[in-house]
């Protein structure tokens, strides 16, 4: 992974160039400050991840209008994002507080859990988005059969299938055989592979994961949304030409337009996901298959280190964005959030509602 390559390369440069004590001290101080800045940023991200995704789950539980199969997938996506804020980021922050010796002697079980959880959250997010795109396609292409096909029990079965697939990939990633340090480079100490002979093993895992859990689902999602917009364009054209001709045409057209708004929101969710994850996936591939990250100078090392930390923070930022997108673009969620905030702000005070017992009028 990138961090391993950078650290290892810098070690060689130090030995060959004879870095002075002052330069070495400056570099150590720079890394310390960078770790501190990164820690503050991810704690900030974690706070809003927990806040936003908890609100999504609360309104899904409270609002009847959100108790439907399509919304259950969004709620499950919120659970995956919530795991990032509750587990992934706190564990990464804990790593930042440890010194080199503590990292080297970290418990193998904690180390493997770091690898497992960041792989599981990514797999869960991308596969949930994949099923959401198929669900939207099914609702737009066959609206009359949708309710009978996509029931609550079937959506729950699909969610369990997503958990099973993601858990299988994450469990494989956490095994020593995989050669994985985690998708977000969570493996440290006993999980870190430093043997050059294991490079082929690392290449196999990250190539397999990128194809199975990122490229193929992303291609499938794009195909689904292309088909959806083709259907939408065709029906809009038929509506304008008066070819539908049903009595309840206006109601169907209104429902169709509402579905299009939801589709645009979900498409934005997918776009944000790709923008947040693609840079890190590209960095992982370059660090494995290319020598582009060879450090030629100390300034280059500083730049690559800052760039690596920024790209590592982007996937975490993705988990914070989804609730914001729901609140801004989905009318159902926007109204549900509004009602929730109104209940919180204008919650009646029971002590003010009931007058003291002595002041209550007596019954004759």
String of helices and strands: HHHHHHHHHHHH
> Which residue ranges are poorly predicted, with pLDDT under 50 across at least 5 consecutive positions?
1-18
* Amino-to-carboxy terminus distance: 83 Å
Form type: globular
Helix amount, in percent?
over 70%
- Tally of individual helices: 12
Largest sheet: none
Based on CA atoms alone, the radius of gyration comes out at 25 Å
Overall pLDDT:
77
Q: Strand share of the residues?
A: under 5%
- Extended strand count: 0
Structural class: mainly alpha
SSE layout:
Layout: H1 2-17, H2 21-62, H3 69-97, H4 100-104, H5 108-141, H6 143-149, H7 152-174, H8 199-240, H9 249-289, H10 298-329, H11 331-345, H12 350-353
Structural notes for this entry:
α3 packs parallel to α7 (152-174), α5 crosses α6 (143-149) and α8 (199-240) runs antiparallel to α9. This protein has helices at residues 2-17, 21-62, 69-97, 100-104, 108-141, 143-149, 152-174, 199-240, 249-289, 298-329, 331-345, 350-353. Helix content is 80%, strand content 0%. With 364 residues, it is an all-alpha fold. It contains 12 helices and no strands. The radius of gyration is 25 Å and the shape is globular.
Short description:
The protein is mostly helical and 364 residues long.
Task: Offer a few descriptive terms.
364 residues, 12 helices
